[in-house]
Specification:
This protein is an all-alpha fold. The protein contains 9 helices and no strands. The longest helix is centred in the middle third of the chain and has 30 residues.
Length: 203
């Protein structure tokens, strides 16, 4: 990367490949950042020691893969809400978007930290979550995490007795981060082109 690359704007998102990359990258960022930052905050001065423990490293690995489908649903719902006004056929666009999100999930090998049976269960939950998106009007970005925040909080690799009343903090983290992701997508998305690409996939 050259010096002037730092000043270039990210490219517009115009096709399915660009959309898949955006959803994948932001779903991982949303879920992993919260897990790592919350764990460091809870560990305090002992964070380096904690993260060096193999048992904790394994717990983090399990948490981030279990949380990843939640991130896919949340970012997928955000994207669907932005693109819905441009859909030639709403149900068809959602079906094409859901297929795209599932292809992202299926692109990963079964995580060793979980195993095939649990990974398939998480995929089934992802399918159910995506199916629910079309049952209500598009939500504000800040409201999308509300139904997922408790499930996400329960995945934190910190003993439940040490979590205290931190659930609102995690919920607010998700809300703020989803708003930032929404702002980026709204700036970069060529919505008519993406709607057309998803329509062709649905056809």
């Amino acid at each position: 990367m050259g010096f002037f690359d730092f000043f270039r704007r990210p490219p517009p998102i115009r096709d399915r490949e660009g959309l898949a990359d955006f959803i994948d990258r932001n779903a991982a960022f949303l879920t992993q950042k919260g897990i790592y930052e919350y764990s460091r905050a809870r560990a305090g001065h002992y964070a380096k020691v904690l993260f060096a423990e193999s048992s904790f490293e394994n717990a983090v690995e399990q948490a981030r893969w279990r949380a990843y489908p939640l991130g896919l649903v949340m970012v997928g719902e955000l994207v669907e809400g932005v693109l819905r006004p441009y859909a030639a056929r709403e149900s068809g666009q959602l079906a094409a978007l859901s297929d795209l999100v599932l292809s992202i999930f299926d692109g990963y090998p079964v995580p060793a930290a979980l195993g095939r049976e649990e990974w398939l269960e998480l995929r089934a939950e992802l399918v159910r979550g995506l199916a629910l998106i079309g049952l209500h009007p598009p939500k504000r970005a800040m409201d999308i995490p509300l139904v997922f925040a408790e499930s996400y909080f329960r995945l934190m690799p910190i003993h439940e007795k040490l979590r205290g009343s931190d659930a609102p903090t995690i919920r607010n983290y998700l809300r703020v981060t989803l708003c930032n992701i929404h702002d980026e997508f709204s700036r970069r998305a060529d919505a008519p082109a993406l709607a057309s690409a998803l329509h062709r996939q649905d056809a």
